[in-house]
Design goal:
This protein is mainly beta. It is 8% helix and 43% strand. The protein is built from two helices and 22 strands. The protein has helices spanning 3-26, 356-361; strands at 47-59, 62-72, 85-87, 90-97, 101-107, 127-131, 135-137, 140-150, 162-173, 183-190, 194-203, 206-214, 220-228, 240-242, 248-250, 269-273, 278-284, 292-298, 309-313, 328-335, 344-353, 369-374. The protein is globular and about 55 Å long.
Amino acid sequence: MTPHRAIFVLLIVLAVLDDAALAWRSHHALPAGASLELPVFPYANGWLGADDAFSVPLAPDKSLWLFGDTYVGSSDTKLRSQATTMIHNSIGISTCRPGKGCSMRYYWAGAGSAKPRSFFDSGRDDLWYWPLDGYREGDKLFLPLLVVRERPGSHLGDAFGWIIAGTRWAEVTNLSAPPERWKISVRDLTNAKLWPGASVVPYGKYLLLYTEVSEGEGKGYMTVLRVARDRLADPAARWEYIGEDGKWHAAPPHGDARDVIDQPISEMSVRYHPAEREWVAISPGPEFPSPRIVARTAASPLGPWSPPKTIFEFPEMKPGTPGYDKDTFCYATKEHVEFEQDSKMVVTYACYSFSTPKAKENMGIYRPQVVVLDVPK
């Protein structure tokens, strides 16, 4: 192949990849000239704080927010210390209109009742779900759920008194209806060794699932699974994994899966930025607890990824900052491309405390915090 023909073919490939990514973004990008409105997460109507905060665009002005453990109380409860229950997930619908700000409405099962339940409910008290990244296809939503259970020997108030038992796959239909009328079905997906869905990315005719391969507590790496977008009802029956040989292989990954990111990350975001022609992966730093947000960039969602670069330091973890407490740690870093404008990206994170009583008392933590950062080059 001549150099000129090689360059021509490369440009065609890049154009195809950009078209696929742009098609993903086009239905939720901000209109040209619109002012950037930032999402807000007020304590309201009994919702008293949560973490995770994956977002899924539903319309140009609406996003679905997927929260993890959530403190809830009656509609007039104002403080977490007065909350009667922690449920294990909730959702929110934000509406953001240029020049008019953003509003948020929260949902969970049994809101206002004496026995509130998670929005995605396992039906059991000793096993629950934490939602991961989601993907909308028409009037359907697909998302993986981490299956979590109590750690044997843990005590009430233990911030880490849980273990991951596997994952399940949720399909939500009737998405255009109010959340109270959504129809949710859940099926088994993986065992505890494989956690797909830390980030979910449509890429051409496939859906990519960034997957933590767990090799023990705090150990492992990230690989990528893919499933055809017309086979999402039962991904485990159809998925493939990227191997060390650069080829896609049917079946769940095993010892020959490619190590895409050399850091086990249970939740993160991978998103495309067409102006920069690059993919950006956002996560906490590799240390725990990490005092920072790091970004990796790549020309392809399969890498190779750049080394992690610090793009933000959590003020809540900096000694000398007003309200600093040595027990506070931050995590749950995500990018939300529906709010991007002029190469500025919107990122959220959450903080909790190693001391659960402190987390209940401190209303300055444990809800998504919003920061606007430059898209890393």
